[in-house]
Amino acid sequence: MHFTVKKMLVVSAMFMLALQVWATDSAGQGSLLELQGELVQGGMVIGRAPQGSQVWLNDEVVKVTPDGRFVFGFGRDSENTHQLKIKYPNGTEALRELEVKPRDYDIQYIEGISKKIMSPNEEDLKRIRRENSMVAKARAGASVREDFLETFIWPAKGPITGVYGSQRFYNGEPRRPHFGLDIAAPRGAEVIAPASGKVVLAHNNMFFSGGTLIMDHGYGITSTFIHLDAILVEEGQEVKQGDAIARVGATGRATGPHLDWRINWFNTRLDPQLLMSEPQP
Fold it and tell me: In degrees to the nearest 10, what's the CA dihedral of 54, 59, 61, 65?
């Protein structure tokens, strides 16, 4: 298969890419493959192939919508090269190498975390494992919702105080990287749905994340909102973009009121800020 890059367009200050790649089969016919997103660590990419195509990323099946759309993403420490395979309805196969840009990440130091949070006892560890299992189950589904195709909007208003990928030191001790986008706001401030979806987890008091809400946007894409003071929706509820879903809090491992918003593609943690084409309102 021979590929030629047809078009590349920068659509935002976040280096959003829109790629159109032509795959020419042995009969000399062209099939258009579109990829829109950020080819960078933490980026989410939405693709479109002819209806009836099959897609693989690094030999893993990527589920495709009835009209040929699909989504995937790259983790914080993703390798630089990935292989996208397309099998078209006529049986023709095409391979495309994706070059993923590396990123530099901030280091943050946070003091004042309680000893109980820093050094949980055995009973707390059992609770943490149980809650982690609940979160993993909520993110594991591959529903056929197509809400991920919406243009995401900001879920809260306020200054950004924490960014994706940053390495945090709590009370001087290194911890795992931060995978969310922190938006500072007063306790009780409204949190709205950045895209439509279905509530798959609503928990008022998890050990680390406090009030925790997870929404399914379809095809492995989920939003997680943590440290919430109140959750305004219930598990199983259908939510439209812009609906009020929660209130900002400082529950769990938090030193002040803020919203920690996270995006996942199954277990791959993505950068919510890369989805935003508009500045905060």
Answer: -40
Other Cβ atoms less than 10 A from the Cβ of 16: the count is 18
- Residue 161 to residue 181: CA distance in whole angstroms: 8
DSSP at 249: B
Number of neighbouring beta carbons within 10 Å of residue 269: 23
pLDDT tens, position by position, 198-236 = 999 999 999 999 999 999 999 999 999 999 999 999 999
Tokens encoding 72: 């995937």
Q: Which token pair is 223? A: 């939003």
The set of residues, in sequence order, having a beta carbon less than 8 Å from that of 129 and lying 6+ positions away, is none
Q: What is the layout of strands, in order, in the sheet containing 44-48?
A: 2-10, 17-24, 30-37, 44-48, 69-73
The predicted pLDDT at position 130 comes to 94
**Burial profile 33-44: b = 16 or more Cβ within 10 angstroms, e = fewer:** bbbbbbbbbbbb
Q: How is residue 170 written in tokens?
A: 């709590």
Tell me the sheet residues that pair with 32. Answer: 22
Burial of 143 (0-12, 13-18, 19+ CB in 10 A): middle
Tokens 């946007």 — which residue? 217
Structure token digits, residue 274:
């890369």
Q: pLDDT, tens digit, for every residue of 38-76? A: 899 999 999 999 999 999 999 999 999 999 999 999 999
**C-alpha distances in Å from residue 102, one per residue of 10, 39, 76:** 18, 9, 9
3-state secondary structure of 277: coil
CB-CB neighbours of 88 under 10 Å: 19
**Cα(50)–Cα(149) distance, rounded to whole angstroms?**
17
